[in-house]
């Protein structure tokens, strides 16, 4: 692993600006790293080497001319394979979209290109973002760089693993119920779910439209803020985009201070079912916040205990509607039924969806279609939306007592590949701490809280803030990261075991 692939995005950007290194050198170093280790990690579904190098050459030309496209100009980035990318395949981790090349860029992607970030490629994910382990990808699982026999979280495990393995200094993911934050926790990376509507969803292939939110994955809190600044802000192409200025996220990191901050520990997000090592590292982090001058209080959000049940009715319902567009008629896979000379459109659609969708996608489509069916809508989907309102009210009440809320990000460290694959309910429980924020649309960040005593694997701490107060996440994250790194004597990602290099 070269020195360039150990550096964070802010440091790389400074090195490129100063002329100490070129964007081409930085980009090529990460492409080499992908070539060396991704056979084992499988973070990428598609590597766009020439596209990335062309963008890097353009960044170097701008620097030579004394120009700059953004604060991250020339720093490479990986993109979750759920964003449309003109000229680069987009599969959403599904065989039903195998080989599909979109004709346009998602707004997030167009902003990355405009800001001068070379796109290294598209990262692996649970099929259509349905999963918590990246084992449900139609192209095989991604593996956690800390232990290749363990999961990297999901659905955005590819983005988190790429950053943890040094294959990319930055990545973009999506968070529907925790798919940025939970992978961040189990890989020792920083993952942010912005306020719903704070980053454009245009060109993001929809799973659950009222929940999906794009956000940054990075090595440090500052790196995440810099990427957030690039991709965030109002987009007239997205009807759910918030028409307000982006909060000052970068400034919040650079002026991080916890003195006088009211921090609420959520009573319902801890205790039974949480790994002792995860709770120990969380408690350590809370003590550090107190030492830094924060006021810590316990807050109760009683309806959070119903969050998981409500989420797994709302998400499948919206997914069953969104995935109806994959009908074998417009794009993607088309399979003809066997033994039928002149198949009808319905027969072709049935054969295609049977062949193209994996078992988890089928499970959720069936569940969602049932919940929306006549006679059951009010009993299931309607009731779940009422619970969602109660959870939002819990947040409102809690934020009257505290400026931010904190909890463990995930109840356990990374589990072994295959361990929960045949137990959907056990898999869904990985989202128990992250789902409430998604249902309410409030922003959240996960940052590494240390290594669990039992297994030496990363644990994560989650910080939540009111809607459009994303800068508070970065204020807390930046201050706490500095204190934790002093305790660890360096960045946690420096402890990732050496990966086998392809020869």
Structure description:
With 503 residues, this protein is α/β, with parallel strands linked by helices. It has one domain (9-303, 389-495): Amidase signature (AS) domain (Amidase signature (AS) enzymes), CATH 3.90.1300. It is built from 16 helices and 11 strands. The protein has helices at 9-18, 23-41, 49-64, 107-114, 157-164, 181-187, 221-231, 249-254, 276-291, 307-322, 345-356, 359-372, 378-401, 424-428, 435-440, 470-488, and strands spanning 44-47, 77-80, 119-123, 170-174, 190-193, 214-218, 262-266, 295-299, 404-408, 444-451, 458-464. Strands 1-3-2-4-6-5-10-11-9-7-8 form an 11-stranded mixed beta sheet, sandwiched between helices. Helix 4 (107-114) links the parallel strand 2 and strand 3. Helix 10 (307-322) packs across helix 13. The mean pLDDT is 96.
What features would you highlight for this structure?
single chain; 503 residues; alpha/beta; Amidase signature (AS) enzymes; 16 helices; 11% strand
List the helices and strands and how they pair.
Layout: H1 9-18, H2 23-41, E1 44-47, H3 49-64, E2 77-80, H4 107-114, E3 119-123, H5 157-164, E4 170-174, H6 181-187, E5 190-193, E6 214-218, H7 221-231, H8 249-254, E7 262-266, H9 276-291, E8 295-299, H10 307-322, H11 345-356, H12 359-372, H13 378-401, E9 404-408, H14 424-428, H15 435-440, E10 444-451, E11 458-464, H16 470-488
Parallel strand pairs: 2-3, 2-4, 7-8, 7-9
Antiparallel strand pairs: 1-3, 4-6, 5-6, 5-10, 9-11, 10-11
